[in-house]
Model the fold of this input.
Amino acid sequence: MGDIGEFFSFLSQYMRVMRRGFVLRKNPYQKGRFRINGDRSLLVDYGDDIDLTTNRKVKRMAEILSGERLKGVQAIIPSYRNISVVYNPLEISVLELRDQILLLEDRFDQTDASVRRVVEIPVCYGKEFGPDIDFVADYNHIRPDDVILLHTAPLYNVFAVGFTPGFCYLGGLHKRLHTPRLDNPRLSVPAGSVGIAENQTGVYPLETPGGWRLIGRTPLTLFNPDRPDPFLCGIADSIKFVAISVEEFDQIRQSKAP
Done:
C-alpha cells in the first residue's frame, strides 16, 4: 500500500503544479522535475527556458540514461528543455523510474560529456535556392551578402530533432537574422532547403510543406533510410554552414554518395 500511496501523492503534486502553471526561470533546475506523460512516458524537465545551458544538461542526462540501459526503459528522447523517458510499466513503475533518474543525476558532475561532432553543411545561398534571402535582408536592414556572412559564422547547437526525420532545430542564430515565418506556408519545400523561423534555423531533410524563410539549399542528403546511419546529423552534434557556389553545388550533388 505504501507504493500506491506514494504514487497518488506524486500524482496529486503533479496536478497542483499543472493547475498553477510554471514560473519562468533563466537557469536550469538543480534537479529534474517530473511530469507524467500518458501511461508509459515520464517527462523530466530541466528548465522552463530555452537556452544553451539547459539544453546541454538535457543532452548530458540523456547520454547518462542511455548508457545505463535501465530495465523497462524503451526510449530516451531529449528535446529543448526536457527528456521523455518511454518505459514499460509492467517492468518498472513510474516511481522506481523517477528514483533511478534522481540517483543518476548525482553523477552528472562526475562524468565527462562526450566530444561533440561538428557536421559541415555546404549551402548555396540565394538565387533559386533561397527565394526569401532578400526578405530576410530587408527585414533586418542588412544586405543579402550580410545574411550569408552572419548565417555561416556560428557553430550551431542542435536543440531538438523532429517535425520530419532528421530535421534539426538549431540554436545560435545571430540576432540580426531573426525573421518571422511566412504568413502562408508553402505547400512544398525542396529537400535540403535551409530556412529561418524567428530565432532558429534549420534544414529540411525531405520535401514537405513548410513556413520557414528559405535562404539557401544544401546538396547533401540529410536523411536516407537506406544508409547504415540514416541521419547525417543528430541531437549530439554541432552544425557549421559553409557557403558554396552554384557550380560547387552541382558538383557535390553529382558526386556525393546516397
Observations:
- The first helix runs from residue 2 to 20.
- The chain has two domains: 2-110, 118-255.
- DSSP finds six helices and 13 strands in the chain.
- The first strand starts at residue 33 and ends at 36.
